[in-house]
Design a protein that fits this description.
484 residues, TIM Barrel, 2 domains, six-stranded parallel beta sheet, five-stranded mixed beta sheet, 17% strand, globular
Length: 484
């Protein structure tokens, strides 16, 4: 999907008069897969050489986004290729991986001018002004940099509360038409979709989550009018049919959510929207769900993580299971596609606690949940559990690097009570079992799913998308590249 974080930085730079654009390696190479020579890894999109070829010769500054730690092995190769061609150009970086591991990054590649930590719009402007004027990096909050081989991390910048003052994302350089033509997005194969952010941050502090380090535990919302105005511009300029709100936690303030939904109804844009990344249920009730549904809400992911009170308490997940089940039931009754997320393999998690999740899966299937995703716990860098466990990844070694939480063959249990094989069994069996219950409790969903996949070619659930993708594999340009 188009990267909205980079688009926000691009929009901010343009608002300050910079001549800039995005090189979207993933979007430009949607039909390309690069097998890395000698490693069990592949990259989707442009190669490092192709990226460098697209950089103008007269460039002054280059910003690189690195979001996911599992891809650093290739991100770092791209940076080295950039440095080979542009040894005198200032390079700066940002993203979650950068925020969490700036010390290792700067020790590995000290030529990087600075790493931007956390929310980056204000910091990037100060940083580029400092580069231009030959200023003192030690005076810029929210960066880390290398000074004669010593990594220095400055004080973190306080996040901007007035998020309405942040410039809108600029998609200049992003092949939006290609994304839309291929129905790319978060499980949005049936719609021309674009990502948006209406709120920033999350007020919770779950022990497994990267939010407290990346964003700190504060939540701010944009004015509802501004969000609707941005949607209108995408309908007008790109012909979008659907919005994926990729907010960390969209539904926090019931009053704001109601106002936004009502303004979207009034605008009558004929679009649908979804909350595919996950949101809390504490502020949701029947009245709010009805207005959200009327405004076009088609899908929502509710993050349960566990059906065990003991597990939830241990990971600091403030969730009342009784309320959670009630919200799932009421959401489903309104015809909104409900997806539930579970995580297994937490430290201290017992098999009894896992079975509590299994029983919750049964209840949620009965109450009307449509979809499920079962994931493994991963100690992400700079999370509370990461620090407690004393994890030390080698981001340059594919065998010692972090894996994604849906990478079944490489799942690792961090529980003292069951091993990797049992964890994989839980993930696979619970997923298949949930879909089997769909056929038992609501056989028409299976029939409708068959129609969506094989006739309409408009998959809705995670399972339908997997089947659809398998049956409709596109001819990809498979190439082998070296990172030596």
């Amino acid at each position: 999907m188009p990267d909205i974080g980079t688009a926000y930085i691009n929009g901010t730079l343009k608002s300050y008069g910079y001549d800039c654009e995005i090189i979207d390696a993933a979007g430009e190479g949607l039909d390309s897969r690069l097998k890395i020579e000698g490693l069990p890894l592949s990259i989707a999109g442009l190669s490092a050489d192709e990226i460098v070829e697209r950089i103008p010769e007269d460039i002054d500054y280059i910003g690189v986004q690195s979001m996911h730690s599992n891809r650093w092995i290739y991100d770092s190769f791209v940076i080295k290729k950039i440095l080979e061609k542009f040894p005198n150009v200032k390079i700066f970086m940002g993203g979650e991986h950068v925020t969490a591991t700036s010390d290792k990054i700067l020790r590995q590649i000290p030529e990087i001018g600075a790493c931007v930590l956390g929310e980056g719009e204000e910091t990037v402007i100060e940083l580029l002004e400092c580069f231009r004027d030959g200023g003192d990096l030690s005076k810029i909050e929210g960066i880390a940099y290398s000074d004669n081989g010593i990594v220095i991390e400055n004080k973190r910048r306080q996040r901007r509360k007035a998020v309405s003052d942040i410039a809108l994302p600029s998609w200049d350089g992003v092949p939006i038409a290609k994304y839309l033509a291929n129905h790319c997005g978060v499980n949005s194969l049936s719609k021309k979709s674009i990502p948006m952010i209406a709120t920033r941050g999350c007020p919770y502090s779950c022990t497994f989550c990267t939010v407290p380090n990346m964003w700190d535990s504060k939540w701010f919302a944009r004015p509802a009018d501004d969000v609707v105005k941005e949607i209108k511009s995408y309908v007008r300029d790109f012909g979008i049919e659907h919005i994926d709100f990729v907010d960390l936690t969209l539904v926090i303030n019931k009053k704001w959510m109601t106002e936004f939904a009502e303004k979207l109804i009034e605008a009558d844009l004929g679009i649908t929207w979804a909350i595919p990344i996950g949101t809390r249920t504490e502020s949701i009730d029947s009245d709010l769900l009805k207005v959200m549904r009327k405004s076009g809400l088609s899908r929502v992911l509710y993050s349960a993580e566990s059906g065990s009170e003991a597990t939830l308490l241990r990971i600091k997940k403030c969730l009342t299971l009784e309320k959670f089940e009630r919200v799932v039931k009421e959401t489903s009754k309104l015809g909104i596609c409900v997806k539930i997320a579970f995580i297994f393999g937490f430290p201290g998690q017992t098999k009894k606690e896992v079975m509590d999740s299994f029983f919750l899966i049964n209840r949620l299937a009965y109450l009307g949940a449509n979809d499920i995703v079962c994931l493994s716990f991963i100690p992400y860098p700079k999370t509370e559990l990461f620090d407690q466990l004393g994890v030390d990844y080698d981001y340059t070694d594919p065998n010692k690097n972090i894996r994604l939480n849906n990478d079944i063959p490489n799942m690792q249990s961090w529980s003292e009570h069951f091993g990797d094989g049992v964890l994989k069994f839980f993930v696979v069996f619970f997923t298949l079992y949930f879909y089997a219950l769909q056929g038992l409790f609501r056989p028409m969903r299976v029939v409708n799913g068959f129609k969506r996949v094989f006739i309409k070619k408009l998959p809705l659930t995670n399972f339908e998308s997997i089947v659809f993708n398998y049956l409709n594999k596109k001819n990809l340009k498979a190439r082998t590249v070296s990172i030596k």
